[in-house]
Write a structure and sequence with these properties.
Blueprint lengths: L18 E3 L9 E5 L1 H6 L4 H4 L2 H8 L10 E3 L3 E3 L2 E3 L7 E8 L5 E7 L14 E2 H16 L6 E13 L3 E11 L5 H8 L4 H15 L9 H23 L1 E2 L21 E2 L23 H20 L3 H12 L1 H17 L9 H14 L4 H8 L11 H15 L6 H11 L7 H14 L3 H10 L30
Antiparallel strand pairs: 1-3, 2-9, 4-5, 6-7, 7-10, 8-10, 9-10, 11-12
The structure holds adenosine monophosphate and magnesium ion.
Magnesium ion binds next to loops.
């Protein structure tokens, strides 16, 4: 039985300068670690066939399925503020696109499937640890309801990759609405190839923003739409304590999905200046800096689109500034509305913002666990998260007075709060433990269990209650690594 994937490729039909055609490099002994069966079904693929040895070969890049048109996409990007005119898929190959059960076009990409013309000095490979981390965190984000790329499968290759030491090699099958980034626009803009920028913009509009097709000032509309989606995305990150870690323009998706899970992490104790990434020495991508950085990245996108705005470039700049100006309002509205839901407010009153800010300030001062404080607040049980519970009591008094003005019952409020405040997040120490078991002992049971628990982040799962716990002092993970 051969595995058939009904590809309908559109990106590889764009001009040659957009990508390089390159096949995955066959690997020694592919073995399937995990298949995301519900996602396979959603994509119209047969999970049983993907679980056969031939399926594992496809997911490892050893066999290229018929209808695939494998390419490495070209892109540029600002990395930590420094512009690199050519990055591109150095360790990822897009097999092709499928139309899913909802009629949406989805990219199917292999990450870690061998070198491409964009690999520079890299080996085009991925180590098992980062592959498992991306699988866990991207699927956790999906379960939390946050726009994200997905993970269809993880396979080990039977080969070693060499980082500081020899590590098991692996391939992640990543699914995305598209892999088009701010950096994809930058690739053409820096080459002053306005026709390519226009071609890319038209492709993006048809694919992600079809409502703009018949609008006036389509390209202005495109910038506005991306600004809105990014503003809402970053608000969602902050509301769950997520730190992306490498918000370079090449890791900033035009579709508004979270993409590129490298040194990302969820924070335990609330700390607005929290950084985990070992390479983020200046704290550029710290938790609370993320909205500012998203706007910075969007400003780079705006620069790329200016030639499409019209011949009068002074006017174009003014228009772009206007559109970018909407970011902070959209972000604040999404963030404040989310915070209100987190503390159980259904209505909006003067003083709410200050009340909530006072809670966040007290949490920071008391190193309160971000996730558990909000989760426990529903049962008015958050005081134990504070080093100085008296500080919480003062705030709780004001909160009680405020929620007494809401028409909802306590039961309704609790249900609403539980639906937005997760109990289970991918805590760093859990992710690390799972990776250690897989890498050192070839034991994937902890990985399977963590993935299972995180698929229902808002539900009490009494048998897995320990997964909600913050790390003990000696379990704390202080740094995360790109690990490419
Ligand atoms: P990232 O840190 O994942 O955003 O990657 C930044 C750039 O480095 C992209 O162009 C990647 O394709 C490239 N890259 C990262 N790791 C490797 C690798 N192992 N081999 C080749 N290219 C890589
Ligand atoms: Mg990247």
């Amino acid at each position: 039985m051969t595995v058939h994937i009904p590809f309908q490729n559109s990106y590889s039909a764009l001009p040659d300068s957009f990508f390089a055609r390159v096949a995955p490099t066959p690997v020694a002994a592919p073995r399937l670690i995990k298949l995301n069966r519900p996602l396979a079904l959603q994509l119209g693929l047969d999970p049983d066939l993907l679980e056969t040895p031939e399926g594992a070969e496809i997911l490892a890049g050893k066999t290229v399925p018929s209808g695939a048109d494998p390419i490495a996409m070209a892109y540029a990007g600002h990395q930590f503020g420094n512009f690199v005119p050519q990055l591109g898929d150095g360790r990822a190959i897009l097999l092709g696109e499928v139309i899913d059960r909802h009629g949406l076009r989805r990219d199917i990409q292999l990450k870690g499937s061998g070198p491409t013309p964009f690999s520079r000095r890299g080996d085009g490979r991925a180590a098992l640890g980062p592959v498992l981390r991306e699988y866990i965190v991207s699927e956790a984000m999906f379960a939390l309801g946050i726009p994200t790329t997905r993970s269809l499968a993880a396979v080990v290759t039977g080969e070693q990759v060499f980082r500081e030491t020899a590590l098991p090699g692996a391939v992640l099958t990543r699914v995305a609405s598209s892999h088009i980034r701010v950096g994809t626009f930058q690739f053409f803009a820096v080459r002053r190839d306005t026709e390519a920028v226009r071609r890319l913009a038209d492709h993006v509009i048809a694919r992600h923003y079809p409502e703009l097709l018949n609008a006036e000032r389509t390209y202005h509309g495109l910038l506005g739409a991306v600004v809105a989606r990014q503003a809402e995305l970053v608000a969602r990150w902050l509301l769950v304590g997520f730190i992306h870690g490498v918000m370079n323009t090449d890791n900033s998706s035009i579709s508004g999905e979270t993409i590129d899970y490298g040194p990302c992490a969820f924070m335990d104790a609330y700390n607005p200046s929290q950084v985990f990434s070992s390479i983020d020495e200046m704290g550029r991508y710290a938790y609370a800096n993320q909205p500012r950085i998203a706007l910075w990245n969007l400003t780079r996108l705006a620069e790329c689109l200016l030639p499409l705005f019209g011949d009068d470039q002074d006017k174009a700049v003014a228009e772009a500034q206007d559109i970018l100006g909407a970011f902070s309002e959209t972000f604040s509205a999404a963030y404040q509305a989310g915070l209100r839901r987190k503390v159980g407010l259904f209505t909006e009153r003067e003083g709410d913002e200050a009340l909530i800010q006072d809670l966040l300030d007290a949490m920071a001062k008391n190193q309160a666990d971000f996730t558990l404080t909000f989760r426990k607040l529903a049962a008015d049980d958050a005081r134990s998260e504070f080093m100085d519970p008296a500080g919480f009591d003062e705030w709780a008094g004001r909160w009680h007075a405020r929620i007494a003005l809401e028409p909802q019952t306590a039961v309704e409020r609790q249900a609403a709060m539980h639906a937005v405040n997760p109990l289970f997040i991918p805590r760093n120490h859990r992710v690390e433990a799972v990776i250690q078991a897989a890498v050192n002992d070839d034991d994937y049971a902890p990985f399977d269990e963590l993935v299972k628990v995180l698929a229902k982040p808002f539900e009490e799962q009494p048998e897995y209650a320990a997964y909600a716990d913050p790390p003990l002092p000696d379990q704390r993970v202080l740094q995360t690594f790109c690990g490419t």
